[in-house]
Each structure stands twice: as structure tokens, then as C-alpha cells.
Design brief:
The structure holds two protein chains of two kinds. By secondary structure, chain A is an alpha/beta fold. Chain A contains seven helices and ten strands. The longest helix of chain A is centred in the last third of the chain and has 18 residues. By secondary structure, chain B is an alpha+beta fold. Chain B folds into two domains: about 190 residues, no CATH class; about 200 residues, no CATH class. The chains are: A alpha/beta, B alpha+beta.
Chain lengths: ~230, ~400
């Protein structure tokens, strides 16, 4: 079976006035199904740019990226949205939940855009919330939940469409160490028990330690990659 | 598709309910706009309808021939002070001009009318039975006076509603005797009410008596056989111009007026006067409607303004939605539904405000009003299209946001 992610010579250049910023300078990588990868690097090392490209939120200037055999190069905005909806679950540092919207309705969000019928939506969202241990808190709004609980709602939202990959951008960046450990336990469980592929950005060594594989970015290049 | 639509509707409703105050203020522009359009059209159509009714009450295709200024021995009398028309002029107009259907010569004057202990001052018209047909008077009670009444100069009269009410109150006036200038007249009929004329006088404050009786007993003694006014009804509207010219020609000939000399009579076309009043009412109503529509457009700009603010405020939310798979049209639909809801709810409230406001206005001013379903529907549809039109730009802007930047937006 071919790898889930195949990346070859990925380059991303941002025009910035007269100058050009080279965020990625030729990255090649492949990630197998079921891997748990931590991407590390100082700020400005290109790891966020890399994540945006992995998540089909951005396009590379050159090079090739295949997710599950799909090449996003010639796809339209709406086609990319559909791939994000079906194949990718996002988890952000700031949780990015909709305010004034209950936990379960936040989890509904990807299903709405997948045109899943209302009754089926409820079942799936319920299941995803149970998987992150939030039964009984479905109707709470983000403001009534702790940071750890909010991040778990975000994980449930990322999981609900049964994506091929979870992309987490500093998922513990806003959490204390105890809650961080809880979130990491959930990640390990999702990866270990359910075989979900996870790619996670972090700059903390002890968080990266939960992953099976660590990749270090520096100046837009991979400088270390070890299991 | 239906699922997405219902979901978008729910999202839009929630967004509007979260900012209740702002939503209401935004709607205010549409409420006032729709209300103003409805009120203005109601007032305009009311005025138009009243004028149309007055034209109808005046009778169709009417020309009025008035006694004019006459000169006797170098002394010029004012218009209408001396009767210059005769009953024979009236007969000649009817027999010699083919476009004329009826003529009714008349003399008139103000007199005190007495019944029992009641008395009332009113205008007495001495005329022929045709007048009732020409001016479209209907009878409520009794009968009109007839040609034999005119031929025999009988002392009978037909009362206008106002006169009947003031003299008789609740009593049946038919067969009763009233005294006009001390001459006893038998009441034979009471007219159906017509209400106010175009210039605000009470058309029902009137008494009709046979022309001959009036000439012999009431006003005609000074100038026997003369009349002040001849009312002429043309056969149809198209010939009125011709008939007017022919009457002028005929009367100049009959009165032996030399070329270059002024007429001693004048001919007025009442229908023309009334239809120009109708036309100005129509223009006024159009003008008011246009001004009101401008406020509706201003309301639409208000919606656009608030929607732009809302898009900016919710940039992050839009970013989240796009990241988890919302397509451009999903975002577009969501914001378009929001502005459409604002304008539709505003439109409905505006209909209420418009109707209520107009009713209050008319109860204070006693202006005539007329609501039309078409005008209300039109105002509502206009509001809806304003919502779509002005909501489109902000919605499109939202749908084109870059998700990475939107997610980073604080």
C-alpha cells in the first residue's frame, strides 16, 4: 500500500513587497497510515506553512503533495474545501470553536457541509463527543467549558467525519501541563486504538515525546527525522 | 441542498438573535421605508379616488355656460352680475348643436327657507328636470319635479339632504309645505347625498324648484326670461371641444356680438378642470412614492453597512467554516439569508407600521386613504430585493475570504 502522504521537493515562496520570503525550501517526506508524527521547529522555521499545505488550506509554489493519492494542484477552491471536509480533521491552538454555539452543534459543523441529514448528524456528533469523554456536556457553550474540554470538543469536531488524517497545530499551546497530558492521552488513544494518523506541530519536547516520530524543521527544511 | 439551506437558515437566525438590538436597528431603515411607501401610496390613491368620485358626482361631459359681463350705456357690469342668457338660448343650444344631449338653464339665489319653527339659509336653483340627470342626482325619497311642473310653474321643490336634515330632522318631508321667501312650496322629493365638491362646498345644501316658478316668484322678477347659467351635457367626451366652440359661435350670433367684441358669456369645461386635478393627484402620489422608495434604498444601504461589519466581526468564524469544508456558496448563502431575513422581517413590520401610521394620520387629518394590496405587495417585494441586492456584496466578500488569514484574524 502506498503511503498516506507523499511529498516531493515542496517549495513555498511568499512575495513580501520587493522581497520574497522562502518559507519552504524543498521538503520531501512520506507518512504512512497509522503514524503519529510531531513536527517541531522554532517560529519561522516553516512548520506552519507546511501544515497549511498539508491541510489544503494553501498551495505550494512548486513540488508535489499527494494525500491518499489526491493531488490538489489543479483543484478549485470548492473542491479543496470538499477534500478538507472529507479527509482532514483540524485541531488548532486556540480551539477555534464557534462562540454561543453548543458543543454538539460545533461538532455538527463539518457534517452540515457534507450534507449529512439532521438525524444522522446527531448520532455521529454524539459518538464523536463520547470518544473524547464529553458525554453529558453536549449542550454546553464554549464559554461554559474549560480549556481542556474546549479542545476535546475541537477534537470531536475533527474526528466526526472520519478523516484520513488529524492535523493539530500546537494543540496544547493554550493548556496547562496536566490538561496537556490528558489531551495527549486522547491523541495516543485515537492513534493506538483506532489507528488514526496524526500530524502535530509543537515546540515542546515533552509533548513531542508522545509521538512516535519527530521531524525537526529549520529554515524551511527538514533537518532531523527520527522514529 | 435542503439540509444545507435549513442549516444556513438556523445559523442566520441565531446570528440575528444574538445581536437583537443591532438587528432591530438595521431593520428600522426597511421598516420606515416600507411603511413610508405604503402610507404615501395610500394617501395618494385616497386623494385620487376622492377626486374621481367628485368628477363622477359632478356628472359626465359637462359644460357650463355662464352669463358674462355686459355693457349697458358704457357701464360695464361684472361677470354674472346681470343675466345675459335666456331660456331661448338654452333651447337653441339643444336644437342646433348635434353633440348636445341635455341642457338645463338655471337661475339661483340664496334665500331663507322656513318650516314650522325651523329655518335655514340655502341656495335655491330654479331649473328644468334635466338638471337631475345631467348632474347625476339620485332621489332618496319622493319624486323629481317634472316638465308639467315647469310648464305650469307649480310651487313644488326637491330638497338636498343637508336642507332636509336641518328643517325636518327625523320627520318625513314629503308632502310638507316649506316657505321660501314667504312663498309656500310643497316638498315632493329629497335628493341622495353627494358630499363635498372638489372645492370643499357642501353639495347637499341645495333646493331645486321649477325654473318658471323661480322666475315668477323668487328671483326672476327683475330680468324676466333671463337665466344666469346653462348647464350643457355633451353626448361624449370626444366632442366636448367642438361643442364648446359651437356654443360660443351660436351665442355670439344670437347675442349679435360683432367680431372683435368681447363675449357676454363664458363657457367652462368642468371635466377638464377635474381631470387636471386628478392628474396632479396622480403626480403627487407618484412623487410621494418615489421619495418613500428612496428611504427604502437608504434602508438597504444600512443593511449592507451592518452586514459588512458583521462579516468583519465574524472573520474567524468564516475561517473555521471554510477550514472544515464550507464551500463559497455555503458562506454566500448564509450571509445572504441573513440580510434577506432582515429585510423580510423589516418589510413585514413595515407593512404593519405603514397601515397603522396611515390610519392614525387619517384619523387626525381626515385625509382620504386607500390601501391597495398591489402597493403593499410591491413595497414588500421591493424590500426583499433590496435585501438581496445590498446583502450580496458583503456575502460575496465573506465567501472569498482566505481561510488562513481568516483563522489568524483577532
Amino acid at each position: 500500500m502506498e503511503p498516506l502522504i507523499q511529498i516531493k521537493d515542496l517549495v513555498k515562496i511568499y512575495p513580501l513587497g520587493e522581497m520574497e520570503v522562502q518559507a519552504l525550501r524543498g521538503v520531501s517526506l512520506s507518512i504512512e497510515r497509522g503514524e503519529f508524527v510531531a513536527i517541531m521547529g522554532a517560529s519561522g522555521s516553516g512548520k506552519s506553512t507546511f501544515m497549511n499545505i498539508l491541510g489544503f488550506l494553501d498551495r505550494p509554489t512548486s513540488g508535489q503533495y499527494l494525500l491518499d493519492g489526491i493531488n490538489g494542484e489543479h483543484l478549485s477552491r470548492d473542491e479543496l474545501a470538499e477534500i478538507r471536509n472529507q479527509k482532514i480533521g483540524f485541531i488548532f491552538q486556540g480551539f477555534n470553536l464557534l462562540a454561543r454555539t453548543s458543543a454538539i452543534e460545533n461538532v455538527h459543523l463539518p457534517l452540515i457541509y457534507a450534507h449529512v441529514l439532521s438525524r444522522r448528524r446527531k448520532e455521529m456528533a454524539q459518538k464523536a463527543l463520547s470518544a473524547v469523554g464529553l458525554e453529558g456536556r453536549e449542550d454546553h457553550h464554549p464559554s461554559q467549558l474549560s480549556g481542556g474540554e474546549q479542545q476535546r470538543v475541537a477534537i470531536a469536531r475533527a474526528l466526526v467525519n472520519q478523516p484520513s488524517i488529524l492535523l493539530a497545530d500546537e494543540p496544547t499551546g493554550n493548556l496547562d501541563s496536566k490538561t496537556s497530558a490528558e489531551i495527549m492521552a486522547i491523541f495516543q488513544n485515537l492513534n493506538g486504538e483506532m489507528g488514526i494518523t496524526i500530524v502535530m506541530i509543537t515546540h515542546e519536547q515533552d509533548i513531542a515525546a508522545y509521538a512516535k516520530r519527530k521531524i525537526l524543521f529549520k529554515d524551511g527544511k527538514i533537518v532531523e527525522d527520527h522514529v | 441542498m435542503m439540509t444545507t439551506f435549513l442549516a444556513s437558515l438556523r445559523i442566520a437566525l441565531r446570528a440575528l438573535l444574538v445581536n437583537k438590538m443591532r438587528s432591530v436597528l438595521t431593520m428600522l431603515g426597511i421598516i420606515i421605508g416600507v411603511g413610508a411607501v405604503i402610507a404615501m401610496i395610500a394617501v395618494g390613491s385616497g386623494a385620487k379616488q376622492r377626486i374621481a368620485e367628485q368628477i363622477e358626482s359632478m356628472g359626465a361631459n359637462i359644460l357650463i355656460v355662464l352669463s358674462g359681463s355686459s355693457t349697458s350705456g358704457g357701464l360695464r357690469h361684472g361677470t354674472g352680475t346681470v343675466p345675459t342668457l335666456t331660456v331661448d338660448d338654452a333651447k337653441a343650444i339643444l336644437s342646433e348643436i348635434p353633440g348636445v344631449r341635455h341642457v338645463a338653464p338655471q337661475i339661483s339665489g340664496v334665500a331663507q327657507v322656513v318650516y314650522g319653527s325651523q329655518n335655514w339659509s340655502t341656495v335655491i336653483y330654479g331649473t328644468t328636470p334635466e338638471i337631475l340627470e345631467v348632474r347625476e342626482w339620485r332621489l332618496n325619497l319622493g319624486r323629481p319635479f317634472t316638465q308639467p311642473d315647469v310648464d305650469g310653474a307649480t310651487k313644488v321643490c326637491v330638497l338636498g339632504r343637508t336642507v332636509a336634515e336641518n328643517l325636518f330632522g327625523g320627520i318625513d318631508p314629503i308632502g310638507q309645505i316649506v316657505r321660501i321667501k314667504k312663498v309656500p312650496f310643497t316638498v315632493v322629493g329629497v335628493l341622495a347625498p353627494k358630499g363635498q365638491s372638489s372645492w370643499g362646498t357642501d353639495q347637499d345644501d341645495i333646493i331645486f324648484v321649477p325654473l318658471t316658478t323661480a322666475q315668477k316668484r323668487l328671483f326672476g322678477m327683475q330680468f324676466p326670461g333671463m337665466v344666469r347659467v346653462i348647464t350643457v351635457q355633451a353626448r361624449e367626451r370626444e366632442v366636448m371641444q367642438t361643442v364648446e366652440e359651437q356654443i360660443t359661435g351660436l351665442l355670439r350670433q344670437r347675442h349679435r356680438i360683432q367680431p372683435g367684441q368681447d363675449n357676454d358669456f363664458s363657457v367652462r369645461n368642468l371635466t377638464e378642470i377635474a381631470s387636471s386635478a386628478e392628474e396632479s393627484a396622480r403626480i403627487m402620489s407618484l412623487l410621494l412614492g418615489t421619495i418613500a422608495s428612496i428611504s427604502l434604498i437608504v434602508g438597504g444601504i444600512g443593511i449592507m453597512n451592518i452586514m459588512l461589519v458583521s462579516v468583519t466581526e465574524r472573520t474567524r468564524e468564516i475561517g473555521i467554516r471554510i477550514a472544515v469544508g464550507a464551500k463559497g456558496r455555503d458562506i454566500l448563502l448564509q450571509f445572504l439569508i441573513e440580510s434577506l431575513l432582515l429585510s423580510l422581517v423589516g418589510g413585514m413590520l413595515g407593512i404593519g407600521v405603514g397601515i397603522g401610521g396611515t390610519l392614525i394620520l387619517s384619523s387626525f387629518t381626515e385625509w382620504p386613504i386607500l390601501f391597495s394590496v398591489q402597493a403593499i405587495l410591491l413595497a414588500f417585494l421591493f424590500a426583499a430585493s433590496v435585501g438581496v441586492f445590498f446583502g450580496f456584496y458583503p456575502a460575496r466578500k465573506a465567501s472569498l475570504l482566505n481561510p488562513i488569514e481568516a483563522l489568524r484574524y483577532e
